[in-house]
């Protein structure tokens, strides 16, 4: 193990940062969380003390001005991702930005351009993609164990509806279940199939009690070769996060597709087996992959254009849910409603 460390700063004290990403970086082989910032200095100090972080700042600007920080993690509300990614890039910091990377594909494009011009790395924080089980899933499919893939079904739901002040329920902040958890099965289908979707049709429940954000959405995403992803996502429903990949001669069942037990099941020609993995912190794996790309020891696993493509799909899903129409996704990224 190398003594070289990537020095991280964290912009904000969000729950996901405190609960998962900061401990993941601290447990990684490559990273140290050197500073954390909040617009509330007391909050920054308290979080730094709780998590053993050396330096606390009372503004995001002060952290970005710290020349000892190599990279920043941005867990801010969705509507702030673009601004602070671009400001971090201008300060010469590499950026790991929480998902979804932006409010729309246009914002994502601006962020990617800014980071590329500044010569810094930009990665969207889909931690699950760094776990080796997804490499294994793709190997099983490519080996023909389940035949030809005919469809995928993904879910990510939870119930936090009573927390009325949550930023997830603020429309202008980019609230809603498609942004928050629907992005997972959408990105997973793209990862597994290795192609980009052509259209989306989504039905959603927009809650008057929650600033009219989508609290539940169900959809069909059309991929090339007549393969469909059916998915549902929710912030006001019983909790689950699953994935099923259906083939002509078998299927893959992932009971905890994004968080939880990493094991999954392969059913092939009537035989069922469990694929077992040792416990691994996928947030640590994400941090290590990020650091090694910064150090140019290995290429980025996912180029930032991947985040743009996922935002194009999210844009289509949100438009479809709002307009009650099937929305095609042109190669140019322009969305078209179809009656």
Q: How would you describe what is shown here?
A:
- This protein has 339 residues and is of the alpha/beta class.
- The protein has 9 helices and 16 strands.
- A hairpin with a 3-residue loop joins β9 and β10.
- α7 packs across α9.
- The longest helix has 19 residues.
- The chain is globular, with a radius of gyration of 20 Å.
- The model has no long low-confidence stretch (mean pLDDT 96).
SSE blueprint and pairings:
Blueprint: E1 6-11, H1 15-26, E2 31-37, H2 41-51, E3 55-57, H3 60-64, E4 71-74, H4 81-90, E5 94-98, H5 105-118, E6 122-125, H6 132-142, E7 149-159, H7 177-193, E8 199-206, E9 214-223, E10 227-234, E11 236-247, E12 250-254, E13 264-268, E14 271-275, H8 282-294, H9 305-323, E15 326-329, E16 335-338
Parallel strand pairs: 1-2, 1-4, 2-3, 4-5, 5-6, 7-10
Antiparallel strand pairs: 7-11, 8-9, 8-15, 9-10, 11-12, 12-13, 13-14, 15-16
Give structural attributes.
six-stranded parallel sheet; Dihydrodipicolinate Reductase, domain 2; alpha/beta; globular; 16 strands; Rossmann fold
Summary of the model, kept short:
With 339 residues, the protein is α/β, with parallel strands linked by helices. 33% of the residues lie in helices and 30% in strands.
Strand content is 25-35%
- What is the CATH first-level class name of the largest domain? Alpha Beta
As for the CATH topology of the largest domain, it is Dihydrodipicolinate Reductase, domain 2
Shape: globular
The chain-level structural class is alpha/beta
H/E element order: EHEHEHEHEHEHEHEEEEEEEHHEE
The percent of residues in helical segments reads 25-40%
Order of the strands making up the biggest sheet: 14-13-12-11-7-10-9-8-15-16
Measured distance between first and last alpha carbons:
58 Å
């Amino acid at each position: 193990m190398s003594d070289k460390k990537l020095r991280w700063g964290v912009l904000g004290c969000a729950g996901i940062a405190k609960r998962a990403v900061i401990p993941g970086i601290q447990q990684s082989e490559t990273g140290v969380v050197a500073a954390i910032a909040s617009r509330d200095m007391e909050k920054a100090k308290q979080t730094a003390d709780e998590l053993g972080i050396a330096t606390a700042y009372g503004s995001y600007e002060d952290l970005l001005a710290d020349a000892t920080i190599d990279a920043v993690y941005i867990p801010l509300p969705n509507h702030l991702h673009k601004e602070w990614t671009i400001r971090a890039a201008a300060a010469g910091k590499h950026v790991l930005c929480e998902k979804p990377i932006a409010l729309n594909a246009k914002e994502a494009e601006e962020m990617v351009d800014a980071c590329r011009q500044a010569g810094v790395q930009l990665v969207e924080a889909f931690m699950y993609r760094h776990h080796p089980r997804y490499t294994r899933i793709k190997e099983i499919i490519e080996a023909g164990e389940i035949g030809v893939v005919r469809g995928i079904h993904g879910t990510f739901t939870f119930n936090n509806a009573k927390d009325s002040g949550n930023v997830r329920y603020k429309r202008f902040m980019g609230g809603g279940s498609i942004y928050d958890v629907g992005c997972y099965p959408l990105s997973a289908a793209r990862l597994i199939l290795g192609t980009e979707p052509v259209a989306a049709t989504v039905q959603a429940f927009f809650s008057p009690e929650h600033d009219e954000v989508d609290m539940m959405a169900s959809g069909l995403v059309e991929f090339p070769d007549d393969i469909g992803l059916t998915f549902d996502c929710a912030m006001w429903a019983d909790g689950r996060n699953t994935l099923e990949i259906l083939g002509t001669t078998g299927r893959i069942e992932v009971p905890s597709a994004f968080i939880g037990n990493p094991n999954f099941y392969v059913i092939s020609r009537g035989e069922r087996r469990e694929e077992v993995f040792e416990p691994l912190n996928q947030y640590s794996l994400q941090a290590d992959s990020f650091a090694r790309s910064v150090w140019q020891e290995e290429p980025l696993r996912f180029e930032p254009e991947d985040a743009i493509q996922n935002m194009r799909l999210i844009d289509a899903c949100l438009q479809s849910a709002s307009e009650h129409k099937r929305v095609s996704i042109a190669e140019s990224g322009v969305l078209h409603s179809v009656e």
